[in-house]
Amino acid sequence: MHSNFDTRTAAACIALGGLFIGALVIAADDKTPSEWLERMDSAVQTTNYEGTVVRLQDGKVEAFEVVHTVSDGVVREKVIFKDGNGLEIIRNGNEVHCIFPDRKSVLVEEWNDQSTLFSTLPSGDLQFGSAYDVSIDSFERVAGRKAVVLAIRPHDNYRYGHRIWLDIKTGFPLQAQLIGDDSEPLQQVKFADIRIDADILTSSLASSYSTDGWKWFTEPRRDAKQEVESEWISDNIPAGFRVVSTHEEALSADTSNVTHMLYSDGLATVSVFIASGNDQKKAKRSSVGASNSYTTLIGDYRVTAVGEVPWATVEQIAGSMRLRR
User: Fold this and answer.
1) Stretch 203-216: mean pLDDT, rounded?
2) Tell me: the pLDDT tens digits for 284-298?
3) CA distance 303 to 283
4) Which tops the pLDDT comparison, 119 or 78?
5) Contact between residue 263 and residue 269 where contact means Cβ atoms under 8 Å apart
6) Measuring CA to CA, which residue among 160, 114, 134 is closest to residue 37?
7) What does each C-alpha distance from 219 to 107, 140, 301 come to in angstroms?
8) How far apart, in whole angstroms, are the C-alpha atoms of residue 127 and residue 90?
9) How far is residue 308's CA from residue 120's CA, in Å, rounded to a whole number?
10) Predicted model pTM
11) Which residues contact 315 (CB under 8 A, 6 or more apart)?
């Protein structure tokens, strides 16, 4: 009897599982991948949520709690890191307080990004076909919620792929992976638990600490950067990348201006910094997580390219820069 019961139960579970997957397919089948990305873009900018996020990078696991609201276009957010020095980040619009309880200090900065967690996700207006393909890959559950999985696959080895798990009900991203050349995740951000469109009290966004008597440090306000026409060009960048902005920046009061050119293929971005000076003896590579950088000398200038792209991309872009004739 017990064996028959187990067999019938297993068969019923398999049948229900098939019905469940079928229901997910029907729910998502009426939307194209681009339409799902448009829903995601809107959800990231308008959704109130709170939950626990797990981030995996370089074999290290980092957990933090996040509370996030949007009202009249203004983002308010609180992030508490569960490990390390207990860093807490409080955001009100573009003003951000980084609270270090171990040092009893607060750093005040200005941020312009509209999303702390999802600033590198594609937007709904990303054009596919030349550098990437996007498709509905599968249907799964994340943090107890039904999700559609989008796969963004590059056409070459000059950029990474992405997998994104979107909440079927709202389009909100529940999990995101950056995929390397070996089809394995280079980094991952995933909600372990989440409440979407939750009623969030104002007190939930306040600091957990009383900062009376603590040291406060304020980063200088960043003036709006003016676009300039650069004297630098590249004749051999990977297909699909183009210059989207060029600025002159002063990294410090003691240094001359640095040319900052931003290249993008619509999803991946590479920053190129060009400064006078040839103190760099030879080409140099470095990496942090999925971000790679490459520095080389071109004449009397030091050129550095950095971005969340493979080594070949930053090396080719940096090495191909030249002054206009």
Assistant:
1) 94
2) 888 888 899 999 998
3) 10
4) 78
5) yes
6) 134
7) 7, 43, 28
8) 34
9) 9
10) 0.82
11) 294, 305
